[in-house]
Amino acid sequence: MITLVLLGPPGAGKGTQAKRLGEHFKIAHISTGDMLRAAVQAETGLGKQVQAIMDGGQLVPDQLIVDVISDRISQADCSNGYVLDGFPRTVPQAEALKKMMAERDGRITSVILFDVSDEDIRARLQGRRGAEARVDDAAEVQEKRLRVYREQTAPLIEYYENVGMLCRVSGTGSVQEVEDRLVETVAKLGTNESLGKI
Fold first, then answer.
1. What is the pTM of this model?
2. Tell me: the pLDDT tens digits for 42-64?
3. Annotated active-site positions, please?
């Protein structure tokens, strides 16, 4: 069973690569962003709750995200493993994930950090304002997202480094080049039983 966490700045390509990893290793791709956006669009109870929070300029509370993830990884398509894209974002969420895994007698195979410079990220997000543009791709929003990422994720990077779980992979290059690096890395990590025991 392969369970992966992908970390990296907005625009690093996590969503694209998480989907490709899921297809390659036959595991579920779980994107918290996609799940929340879908819930908002479908106007579900969760979606209305999330929309109200975001309309107020607030972050979605950790417990709400944790509950969504806990429910999602209990589903049948996660039985062979999954790749988490967008979770955890904070140390409290990482602690919640650790508890979640322990309750299921499982472990995280690895936490992969996409190494991409801010300059590359800005260039990618500017390029994404065309056909793939999202509401959160506006320049001001980009800078805010990068700032929030640095503030919230820096402690998370240190958290996973301290327990020997963090693996850095260059996110620079073509989509295929990055995928090849990731697949090779995950294949090697899957054979190391010391990883993920936190």
1. 0.80
2. 888 888 888 888 777 677 888 88
3. 14, 89, 128, 134, 145
